[in-house]
Amino acid sequence: MNPKSVKFSLVFLFSLLVAFFASCAQDGDGPLDVMPNGQSVEGKGFFEAASLDSGKTIHLISDTLYITLSKIWSFSNCSLTSIDLNYSFDDSVVVFAPTVNIKVNTDDCPSPMYRPDSTFKMLTNSVSSNITKIVVKNDVDSLLDSIMLRRGKIELDTFRIFVDSAFAEPASLPLRTKESPSILRVLDSLTPQKFHWRTLRANCTMRVDMCDEVVADTIYPSSWSENDTALVPVRYACASSDSTYCLSSKWEYDSTSLGKIMERLDTVWHTSTYYVEEIPKCAMMNGFLYSGFTYGAKTTFVRQLFVPDESERSCGPSTKEDWVAYRLDKNALVLESEDDEESPIDSLYNIWKSATVANDTLRTDSTESK
Q1: Which one, 4, 75, 252, 363, has the greatest CB density within 10 A?
Q2: Residues 299, 165 contacting (CB under 8 angstroms)
Q3: Is 334 exposed, middle or buried (0-12, 13-18, 19+ CB in 10 A)?
Q4: Residues 223-242: pLDDT tens digits?
């Protein structure tokens, strides 16, 4: 390489280093201003999510309401000045349209970010008596959440209902307890099943004593599979129950000695169990709990029911206007269906009215049981 070229390169690199350190040593260096020339800008931020809640399933007019704004964008972490809960009335609906107010200045703040959620508390009993619904929107007029306001009271009751052992027999369904509230169990459908099985010879390897006479003892499995052929051991036991033929652990199975394949027909009974209650017009289930369900004994049910005032303008949702059904195996209310010509609720109600009423007490040794 040419010595002159090497010298020029060294001088050029040295000049760059001097310029770099000189620039870092200038007075007044530091973070750049958020706004140029110290300007202050006021404006609006925005939020993307919001929720309304009173902490209860049914929102009464007297409940305290909480409004939570989520994903609030206010330019920077220190530019949020206030949040205004603006609201207006649209017939019987209160429309909340909160605004996020910001003021941007030259303060040293982090980069733009979403602020934590903000929750506001308000009393709803101060709103007009005609209000039935509250909604919340953001600045682009998107409906983010809504709740219904109800007028009435919550009744808490505990019921103990005797469930006769006949409820355990699908062939006796439909069956219900008497009066209201009551338990209703219905047969939904039947599924025929066909199982295959064959005998498997079992030989005793250690006899305890000899029997004058032995009988076949077929050991059927406790469960069956439709896809497999079950092997059913055929042992021999003493005909006399007082004698022992073979120790239970000393049976030897002969897989070369199989009987012919046979069929076992069975039926699966698909059933459903409901808690049913006749309720005041336009009432609504608010909460429901029950203890362990046992046939032939009493079961305890704890139910919360919303009972509307005369001034209440809304009705439901419920299963029927004055009748409610709760499906126990799914822990869910049975609601009306608008798509079907005949709602499942109407069919269930007709079954309940015509179902056989079971005994409401445990039968003891009496003439009625003979």
Answers
A1: 75
A2: no
A3: buried
A4: 888 888 898 888 888 887 77
